[in-house]
Specification:
The protein has 389 residues and is of the alpha/beta class. The protein is built from 11 helices and 14 strands. Strands 1, 2, 3, 4, 5, 6, 7, 8, 9 and 10 form a 10-stranded mixed β-sheet that branches. Strands 11-12-13-14 form a 4-stranded antiparallel β-sheet. Helix 2 crosses helix 3. It is globular.
Length: 389
């Protein structure tokens, strides 16, 4: 029973001196606030999970205290969608060892996913992403991970799992259930040449901060291809999110972070979210906690506006375009949803291994279609093609 994995919340921020407005989220979200009152999952779409785990933090001690600080800001906001779709399971009990915590979050995630409830993990260091990934692994589900991060967090094969190495551990895991990894917002001066070369060799997608900030809408198909989105708050510039030991002068603006979260919520595919590395000890007047609260708000708004237009569910809702390219033996098929104007590319399924059959449709943008019409193979099509062959 999942209740055994959690501690009830101490709702000190709901006292009479700080009474919440009647329409605030805190008055409507079902929370685990006392023993024996664990929320049920009926009608739930989002399950908030706090994690006070920082033993895997390399240089951000204090991030274990982040979850409740975020809640204090989040539950004062007013959601336009149905707030009853959100439940709060409380704070996960930290394991005797770091590996025990990973195992606990993996168990919780593997229980929530079949219920179509999205775990939203808050607080702690980003290596908790490894435990989240293991939840999909327990279900033997092939997944795509998107990380919003200024760094790659690869490390070396012999390194223990921590906030700087968790991605390398996921990549080396056997059996492996990671099909694709995409990084959004890496900053070149924080990433070594060897790491970039390894990403290219693995046909993973990496996007520099300048690429995404030039046109933030290009982040949409990247996020739409994710099953799990992991967000390092160090990817946001220090002026907007000072509550992180690794924050730097450059990075995403707060509005851009919220836009990415809206894209994540709108994605019919995305089933897991983690926001990590928030350190309340370094925050200024709760500014970073307030930003994270708004990011979650946008994510919930996106979920409430999902179009359920995963391709091929109803042929009448889509337009198909076929583009012949001189360097390819076969043409590329593009699919456009008339409900949302979103685009996909069809990959050569006959060349794929059976375990990758659900990867045959690749989210893309109108720019990819224009590129194909100019007789150029879109880069993201090439990357996926090489992984399937």
């Amino acid at each position: 029973m999942l209740e055994a994995y959690f501690r009830p919340l101490e709702l000190s921020f709901l006292n009479e001196e700080q009474a919440l407005p009647y329409d605030a989220l805190g008055n409507h979200v079902r929370m685990y606030h006392s023993e024996g009152h664990f929320p049920d999952f009926e009608g739930a779409k989002i399950a908030i999970i706090g994690i006070g785990e920082e033993r895997g933090s390399v240089s951000n001690k204090g991030c274990s205290k982040g979850a409740d600080a975020i809640r204090e800001k989040f539950y004062r906001l007013k959601l336009h969608q149905n707030p009853q779709s959100i439940i709060d399971l409380g704070n996960l009990k930290v394991g005797h060892s770091l590996e025990d915590t990973y195992a606990a979050i993996a168990t919780v995630v593997s229980e929530l996913l079949p219920l179509k409830v999205i775990p939203v993990v808050l607080g702690g260091s980003q290596d908790v992403t490894y435990g989240h990934y293991c939840g999909y692994k327990k279900l033997e589900q092939i997944i795509n991970i998107v990380s919003v991060d200024s760094r790659f967090d690869l490390g070396k094969p012999e390194d223990p799992c921590n906030s700087d190495t968790f991605l390398g551990k996921i990549i080396l895991e056997q059996p492996n259930y990671l099909f694709n990894f995409s990084n959004i917002g890496y900053q070149t001066y924080f990433v070594g040449t060897e790491s970039v070369q390894l990403m290219n060799k693995l046909f993973f997608e990496t996007y520099r901060i300048g690429q995404i900030r030039t046109d933030i809408t290009e982040a949409e198909p990247i996020v739409r291809n994710a099953d799990l989105l992991t967000f390092d708050m160090g990817a946001i510039r220090q002026s907007d999110a000072p509550g992180n030991a690794m924050a730097s002068p450059n990075g995403f603006y707060g509005e851009e972070a919220c836009q990415v979260m809206m894209y994540a919520g709108l994605s019919d595919k995305l089933s897991g979210l983690g926001i990590y590395e928030y350190n309340p000890m370094l925050d200024r007047e709760g500014q970073t906690a307030h930003l994270i609260a708004q990011m979650i708000w946008y994510f919930a708004e996106g979920i409430g506006n999902r179009k359920a237009d995963a391709p091929l569910t109803n042929q009448q809702n889509y337009i198909t375009y076929r583009v012949a390219i001189s360097d390819l033996e076969n043409e590329i098929t593009f699919i456009k949803s008339m409900k949302s104007d979103r685009w996909w590319m069809k990959l050569p399924v006959e060349l794929s291994k059976n375990r990758y059959m659900n990867q045959h449709l690749m989210p893309c943008s109108y720019k990819d279609y224009q590129q194909a019409c100019s007789d150029e193979v879109p880069e993201r099509w090439w990357s996926a093609f090489h992984k399937l062959t």
